[in-house]
Amino acid sequence: MQLSNRITHITGGGSDGWDVFYKARRMVGEGQPVIELTIGEHDIRTDPVILSAMDKAAKGGHTGYAMVPGIQSLRENVAKRIEERTGVETTFENIMITPGGQAALFAAHLAVCDEGETALYLDPYYATYPGTIRGIGAVAKAVQTHAEDAFQPRAEDIAAKAKGAASLLINTPNNPTGTVYSRETLEGIAQVCKDHELWLISDEVYDTQVWEGTHLSPRALPDMAERTLVVGSMSKSHAMTGSRVGWICGPKDAIENLVNLATHTTYGVAGFIQDAADFALNQGQDLEDKIAEPFRRRRLIAKDILDGQNTVGLIPAQGAMYIMLDIRATGLSGEDFANRLLDEHLIAVMPGESFGQSAAGHVRVAMTVDDESFARALTQLCEFAAKIA
Question: Aminotransferase class I/classII large domain: which residues (predicted)?
Fold first, then answer.
């Protein structure tokens, strides 16, 4: 029996460039001491106080069906958080709780794109973006950004591909580049969306990890709240990656229709997990700062190491838990460099090509191991690059 084209073409064929990651995992499974700097998984786990709240909720009986849009207190808490950070009036009616940010990205595209319509996304991109778009039956079209601009998108490049498109997906602070989009960049994006009647899907899961500049949600720009769907998550801000709890924030009518979609797909998120997320948000900024602090610290470690050499270039690391390194001076592609680094030094990083062609000749390094291991691995990476160059 034949499967649908939609499901068999989600990845576009091939591995989407993640061969180095899978190879590193195989080596770890064989007992080799690989330092993994690949994926955005915190090296600390969910705070025990959050787990205690989850345990209490589960043992207290909140294990049945939860309200599909999300429990009322969590929706209100998310709305309050967003309103305080953006200045845009937001109520629980603007919020739907989802099984993580990935489910939110899928639902958001399904809400605004009809089958066969074009959905734009920026290159470099988080690995699932094009597959998410293909998965809802839309046509994924990349808009290139440029290393010389620190991967800040150019409005004219987006406009050149916007004719006939239904949506644009952006991510700031950005994975994989660490770039935080400036107000000027976001105002340019907003104008293109208004000029071309695009929905804007804004992935803001790294909004608590800003090291330079200020995070600005495009929903806060003039006339953008009505055409913007914001994706958020507890995964990065509260180290709750495995709990799978996120949200979509958008216009009330969009949320009402998204609730209909969830009723026929995910049927909501486990109540005890939502209770834990609600508890976590109530702990305030101090807990979020505690989760973010290791990455803030390691970014400074990285800057010190990279300032001491002249082979590897650092793309301005303004936010998120990654740094993007320019290794073009070695003459190698990002993929070749990453494979050799893994084979010869047991250090695993992600090739820039894993995230699109705009980052060819770069590697992404996740700052997700302890400080000492991180510094040692990054120093070895720079020495390896210098030797090749």
Answer: 33-380
Predicted pLDDT of residue 12: 77
pTM as predicted? 0.96
Strands 165-171 and 199-203: parallel
| CATH number for the domain whose boundaries are 64-283 | 3.40.640.10
Q: What is the pLDDT of residue 16?
A: 61
pLDDT of residue 18: 80
Does the domain made of 5-45+286-382 have the CATH classification 3.30.70.3040? no
Domain limits, the chain: 5-45+286-382, 64-283
- 221: number of Cβ within 10 Å: 21
